[in-house]
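Archive record
______________

***
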Amino acid sequence: MEALREQLLILISTPVYLIVIGLEVALSHFRRIPSYTRRDTLNNLYLMLLNSGIDLLFRGVYVVALDWFFHRQWFHIENPFWYWFWLVVGMDFLFYWLHRVDHHSRFFWAVHVTHHSSEQFNLTVGFRSSVFQPLYRFIYFIPLALAGFRAIDIVFVFSATQIWGILVHTEHVGKLGWLEYWLVTP
């Protein structure tokens, strides 16, 4: 059942991406803002496929590693609501630090700069991920396993939160007021 969650997430998010990207293409055409080029969009999709392939190849390794830490957990959260709530909050916090280190360490910037190398800023840029990040990303999530979150749930919540991460890559949404202080926004 748990393996089906991520497949269901992909089945739901893929048409959402296609619709939202189609709307952004139409809006950029209507506003005469050159948000898309064929070459850049194909590069974004190519890098997404490479990243996803490497992620799938190494997923077994980092699930086993996270599971090892889970069996040495420091806490146990009984209540399902609080379990998922704190897992999402913890994932957001640790991904913030992963992304911050990617920007402030020369070594990790060399890995992450691929994401910032597009000349456009559109939703497909959210797919433009480093092919090397899947090799070390799980290390940031070890505290979640030690906090009592199962590896399979960590992987699922990472995938789910990346949906929002892709949707914020657009120049067609302005400032969102007070939400700017609480959420990653376009």
